[in-house]
Predict the 3D structure of the following.
Amino acid sequence: MDEFPLGIGADAYGYEMKEALRRHLAPSFEVVDYGVESSDASLPYPAVGLRVAEAVAAGEVGRAILICGTGIGMAISANKVAGIRAAVAYDHYSVERSVLSNDCQILALGGRVIGIEVARRICDQWLSLSFDTSSPSAKKIEVLTRYESGRTRGESIPG
């Protein structure tokens, strides 16, 4: 088992992929399922995305995977929660940069865009990476963190 629980959630368009990923990840992680419970569920993606992002922000889960039709709506929803960085990733380079350059805690995937096997491999890679707080990217994340917390409002944003 890994050191943190992993959250997972989807809307109806991501349900099948969520179930496949949940089964794939369960041997290595404590997986907390935030829904939906079927492919005909009517819960909209923002409700799931916000619920999962709040769980990550509160420390209930360490990281999370969200799935909708494209991943875009889930990423937008999750990024509305303070302290959260979510990214849509469809290839190995974007997965790598989502963690190593951007310290993303949430990976968003598109159930209508990529296949299950690609999603499994992307998740495995994403979960194997960790952000290096001594990297040059740490200063960039700090700019975002300061802005989000209101410490740079009214100040000049570097750059």
Helices lie at 15-25, 45-57, 72-78, 92-100, 116-128, 137-148. Residues 6-131 form a domain with the Ribose 5-phosphate Isomerase B; Chain: A, fold (CATH 3.40.1400.10). The first strand starts at residue 6 and ends at 10. The chain is about 40% helix and 15% strand.
